[in-house]
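pls design
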C-alpha cells in the first residue's frame, strides 16, 4: 500500500469561500499536501457536504472519492461513501481544533487475491506510476477510475483489456504457419529423387485453451506455395519455393480481439545421400524466411462511459527457420516402406514495436521483441503403393520444443513519464506436440501427380487441416 497524498485542512466553518455553493458556511480546502500529483482537497456543503475531491493546483477535478460530511454542531463527521479495491481516502477530523486530515492510498494489484499474473503486471505498474512527476493527466484519471472499481472480476477484466494479450493469438498462428511452410517444402525435397515442379494449397485451423493467465484463442491459416525440387548440383540436389499466406487469429474472451496478417515466404533446401555402412540415409537441410504485415484490433472498455471501443495497431514481423532432417531409407540394399526420421531445427521470430492505439494516454506501446526456440522431432513416414496408380502416404511424429516456448511481451503506457517501468506478460506455453498426417497420391497422365490428405496436431495446442498438392516431373 502506497500513500499518494496526505493533507492538513484548516478553515472549517470559518467562511473560506472556495467555489462555495448554497447557503451553508462550510467550505474547506487543503494545503501542505506532500504529493505533487494530488495537492489539494475541496469540500462544500449546504449543512451536508456534497463531495470531497482531490484536485490539482488551481483546478477542481472530482475524482470519485465521494466523502459525506454531516453537520453536527461545532464539529463535522466525515464518512467514506465509496472506495475501490485499490483506492482508499481516509479522513480524520478533530472537532476541538477544527483540524481535518486526508490520507489517500493506493494498494498494489499484487496485494489482491483473484488476479492472474498478466493482470497483476499492468496493475502494479499503474499504481506505481500515480505519484510520478510527469504523469499524463489522462493516465492519472484512468488510474483513479480503475482504482475505484469494487469488484475483483471487473478489475481483472480491465487489466486484461489494457494489456497486449490480444497480440498473443497472432504470434502463435505465425509460429505454426512458419513451421507448416517449412514442412511443406521439406516434404517435397525428401520425396522421390526426381526433378519436379509443384504447387500446394494447405489450410489449417488451430486452437489453444487458456491456462488462467491467458485467454483461449483460435485461428486459421491458408498457405499457397509453389516450388521446384531436386535440381541436381553435383552430388547434391537443391530446391526453392515461394509462398503466400493469409492468417486470422481470434481471442475467445468477452470482447473478442482479432488480428489478421499477410505473409510472404521463401525457402530453399540442400539434400544429399549420406549412406553409412549398410544404412541408406538421406539428409535434407532447410532454410526458410517469412515476412509480413500484421493488423490487430483489440477491444477495450471506456471506464467513464461504459462503452467499448477498438484499439488498433499495424506493424511488421518476420520469422526464419533453419532445420536438418535425416531419414533412414533402407538397410543392406533393401528399401523400406516405413522410414524413420530425425529432425532438429531452430525458429526465430522478430516483431517491431507497436502501439495499441485509441489516441489517448492510456494506450500502450509494445516493445520490439525477438523469440527463439529450438526443437527436436522424431517420427516415421510410410509410403506404399496400394493399387496401380494410387499410393498411401502416412506420417507420425513427436516434437519437443525448448528455449522461448512462451510468447512474451514487454509494454509501456504512453502517458507514463520517460524512463518509467514497463510490464511483462506471457502467453501460454507450447512445449510438446504430436503430428499425424495421411494422404493418397494419384498418378495422372503426362507425369503429373496429385496428392490430397489431412493432418492434425495434438498437445499443448490443437490443429487440424487439409492439403492438396500437384507435381510434375520434368
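designed seq:
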Amino acid at each position: 500500500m502506497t500513500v499518494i497524498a496526505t493533507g492538513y485542512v484548516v478553515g472549517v466553518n470559518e467562511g473560506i469561500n472556495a467555489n462555495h455553493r448554497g447557503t451553508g458556511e462550510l467550505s474547506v480546502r487543503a494545503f501542505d499536501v506532500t504529493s505533487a500529483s494530488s495537492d489539494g482537497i475541496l469540500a462544500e456543503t449546504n449543512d451536508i457536504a456534497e463531495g470531497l475531491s482531490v484536485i490539482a493546483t488551481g483546478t477542481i477535478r472530482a475524482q470519485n472519492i465521494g466523502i459525506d460530511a454531516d453537520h453536527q454542531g461545532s464539529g463535522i463527521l466525515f464518512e467514506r461513501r465509496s472506495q475501490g479495491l485499490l483506492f482508499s481516502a481516509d479522513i480524520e477530523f478533530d472537532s476541538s481544533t477544527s483540524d481535518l486530515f486526508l490520507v489517500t492510498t493506493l494498494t498494489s494489484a499484487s496485494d489482491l487475491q483473484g488476479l492472474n499474473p498478466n493482470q497483476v503486471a499492468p496493475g502494479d505498474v499503474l499504481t506505481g506510476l500515480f505519484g510520478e512527476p510527469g504523469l499524463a493527466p489522462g493516465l492519472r484519471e484512468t488510474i483513479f477510475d480503475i482504482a475505484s472499481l469494487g469488484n475483483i472480476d471487473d478489475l481483472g477484466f480491465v487489466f486484461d483489456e489494457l494489456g497486449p494479450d490480444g497480440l498473443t493469438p497472432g504470434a502463435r498462428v505465425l509460429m505454426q504457419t512458419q513451421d507448416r511452410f517449412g514442412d511443406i517444402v521439406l516434404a517435397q525435397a525428401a520425396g522421390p529423387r526426381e526433378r519436379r515442379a509443384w504447387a500446394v494449397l494447405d489450410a489449417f485451423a488451430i486452437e489453444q485453451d487458456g491456462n488462467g493467465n491467458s485467454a483461449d484463442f483460435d485461428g486459421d491459416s491458408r498457405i499457397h506455395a509453389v516450388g521446384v525440387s531436386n535440381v541436381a548440383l553435383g552430388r547434391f540436389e537443391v530446391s526453392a519455393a515461394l509462398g503466400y499466406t493469409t492468417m486470422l487469429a481470434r481471442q475467445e474472451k468477452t470482447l473478442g480481439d482479432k488480428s489478421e496478417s499477410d505473409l510472404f515466404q521463401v525457402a530453399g533446401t540442400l539434400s544429399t545421400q549420406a549412406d553409412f555402412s549398410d544404412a541408406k540415409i538421406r539428409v535434407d537441410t532447410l532454410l526458410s524466411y517469412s515476412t509480413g504485415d500484421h493488423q490487430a484490433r483489440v477491444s477495450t472498455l471506456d471506464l467513464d462511459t461504459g462503452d467499448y471501443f477498438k484499439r488498433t495497431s499495424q506493424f511488421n514481423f518476420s520469422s526464419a527457420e533453419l532445420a536438418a532432417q535425416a531419414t533412414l531409407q533402407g538397410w543392406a540394399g533393401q528399401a523400406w516402406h516405413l522410414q524413420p526420421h530425425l529432425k532438429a531445427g531452430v525458429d526465430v521470430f522478430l516483431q517491431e514495436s507497436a502501439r495499441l492505439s485509441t489516441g489517448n494516454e492510456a494506450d500502450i506501446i509494445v516493445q520490439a521483441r525477438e523469440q527463439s526456440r529450438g526443437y527436436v522431432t522424431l517420427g516415421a513416414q510410410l509410403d506404399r503403393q496400394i493399387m496401380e496408380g494410387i499410393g498411401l502416404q502416412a506420417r507420425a511424429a513427436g516434437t519437443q520444443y525448448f528455449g522461448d516456448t512462451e510468447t512474451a511481451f514487454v509494454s509501456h503506457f504512453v502517458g507514463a513519464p520517460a524512463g518509467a517501468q514497463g510490464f511483462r506478460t506471457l502467453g501460454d506455453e507450447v512445449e510438446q506436440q504430436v503430428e499425424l498426417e495421411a494422404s493418397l497420391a494419384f498418378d495422372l497422365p503426362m507425369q503429373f501427380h496429385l496428392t490430397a490428405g489431412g493432418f492434425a496436431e495434438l498437445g499443448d495446442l490443437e490443429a487440424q487441416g487439409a492439403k492438396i498438392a500437384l507435381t510434375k516431373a520434368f
